[in-house]
Q: What sequence folds into this?
């Protein structure tokens, strides 16, 4: 691993790196070596004010540019991000512990995709004309103003870009607060956007914990808040934003189901379950951690899954042959170990894994429980780690009811070769993002988001434009105005 990735400064504000060491120190701990590899400082009130003032001052001129001009900046940033993909991926691997094999193809690249997509879309943002006899109405699509983005620690580069791209395409400015667990990557996104031509103050990054986020989202200059995080954090952010009647997008957690029928292609089903449970060491919000397997294929599924898990290779994530990294932090590792202990105590059958790997680094073995029942803690609570729960089922109607019996609704998937059944299942899933015969694919062209406690609003696709802009109606009277007196 790289042991010196200290950023130029903790914050990026108004087109430049800014430091204030009087803020609370935030050490960056390598998940492999367990050593400090960098340090940043939480934003002080002065830093927060500087960022919000810069974003407020810069926004109007940015919104006054044509969409094509704004899009050109975003597309240029996408090109720069792709040119620097290797260095950005190394930084992400150090920040999160995710294998370089993964970050090279899934992190900065997807951030670049978002910048490119919304850069291309920016020039097409228009209103409409509505003829009303001789009178008419036209609508203007306008920016909201200053947006606040709050990121999670599992995909720090991607999330910073996913929030920046639609916000900036619509003419907004943004102050982004990354997770204190992974503070480094968003700084590079800000640096690249500025280099690509985004005016100073349009995209700012400040560090900090919950109190910094609270200060940002309750500031009267802020028009919109976009959060990626846990449900408990989402409740707090939603409530704080609601006090100011702010626009909100919430991409929260899940306990998503994957339903595998007897007629499914076994290899595809096992691959989908691996992607839905062990990619990023299980630290993915949309993971399908409740795997319902029809009884006729259950033992074959478990046998093939166990065989595939022998191909797991842990080690230095910068080694591109390594395909399984550590948890992001010691605390997260301990939380997941606690869930594993509950699974064993409540009677689930441990099929694979179940413990820590080695004594250095926050590595956990990919863990599989079978004979899991709906009421077990590992089947009800979001774990956010490499723990798969396999549940039995017999009947389509019954499994759909059980799959939906959760307060979450982020994602759901089905594996079957019966086309009619596949479409019945996804129509019946109470989830915002669903899959047929694949899992956890999130292209920028498709809306991404959840229902129920898993969130509100959508990220990516044209749908995101509606969450970062507002329509103004303009009624034009062409005839004399009549009045009752």
A:
């Amino acid at each position: 691993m790289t042991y010196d990735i200290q950023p130029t400064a903790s914050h990026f504000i108004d087109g430049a790196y800014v430091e204030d060491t009087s803020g609370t120190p935030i050490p960056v701990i390598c998940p492999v070596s367990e050593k400090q590899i960098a340090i940043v400082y939480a934003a002080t009130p002065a830093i927060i004010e500087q960022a919000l003032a810069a974003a407020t001052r810069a926004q109007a001129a940015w919104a006054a540019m044509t969409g094509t001009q704004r899009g050109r900046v975003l597309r240029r940033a996408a090109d720069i991000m792709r040119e620097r993909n290797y260095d950005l991926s190394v930084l992400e691997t150090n920040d999160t512990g995710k294998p370089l094999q993964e970050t090279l193809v899934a992190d900065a690249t997807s951030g670049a995709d978002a910048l490119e997509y919304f850069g291309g879309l920016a020039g097409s943002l228009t209103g409409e004309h509505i003829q009303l006899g001789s009178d008419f109405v036209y609508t203007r699509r306008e920016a909201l103003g200053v947006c606040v983005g709050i990121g999670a620690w599992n995909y720090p580069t991607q999330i910073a870009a996913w929030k920046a791209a639609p916000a900036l395409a619509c003419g907004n400015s943004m102050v982004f607060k990354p997770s204190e667990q992974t503070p480094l990557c968003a700084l590079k996104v800000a640096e690249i956007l500025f280099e690509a031509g985004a005016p100073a103050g349009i995209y700012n990054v400040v560090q900090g914990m919950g109190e910094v986020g609270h200060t940002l989202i309750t500031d009267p200059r802020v028009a919109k808040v976009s959060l990626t995080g846990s449900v408990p954090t989402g409740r707090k952010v939603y409530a704080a934003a609601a006090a100011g009647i702010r626009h909100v997008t919430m991409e929260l957690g899940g306990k998503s189901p994957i339903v595998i029928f007897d007629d499914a292609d076994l290899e595809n089903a096992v691959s989908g379950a691996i992607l839905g449970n062990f990619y990023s060491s299980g630290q993915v919000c949309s993971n399908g951690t409740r795997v319902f397997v029809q009884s006729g294929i259950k033992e074959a599924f478990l046998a093939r899954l166990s065989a595939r898990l022998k191909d797991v290779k842990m080690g230095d994530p910068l080694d591109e042959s390594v395909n399984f990294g550590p948890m992001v932090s010691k605390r997260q590792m301990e939380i997941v170990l606690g869930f594993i202990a509950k699974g064993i105590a409540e009677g689930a059958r441990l099929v694979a894994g179940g413990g820590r790997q080695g004594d250095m680094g926050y590595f956990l073995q990919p863990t599989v429980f079978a004979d899991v029942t709906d009421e077990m803690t590992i089947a009800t609570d979001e774990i956010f780690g490499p723990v798969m729960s396999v549940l039995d089922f017999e009947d389509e109607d019954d499994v759909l009811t059980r799959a939906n019996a959760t307060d979450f609704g982020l994602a759901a998937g089905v594996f079957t070769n019966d086309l009619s059944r596949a479409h019945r299942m996804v129509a019946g899933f109470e989830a915002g993002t669903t899959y047929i015969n694949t899992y956890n694919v999130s292209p920028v062209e498709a809306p991404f988001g959840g229902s129920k406690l898993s969130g509100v609003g959508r990220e990516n696709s044209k749908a995101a434009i509606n969450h970062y802009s507002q329509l103004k109606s303009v009624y034009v009277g062409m005839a004399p105005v009549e009045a009752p007196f």
About this structure: The chain has 16 helices and 20 strands. The longest strand covers residues 135-143. The domain at 11-252 is CATH 3.40.605.10 (Aldehyde Dehydrogenase; Chain A, domain 1). Residues 45-64 form the longest helix (20 residues).
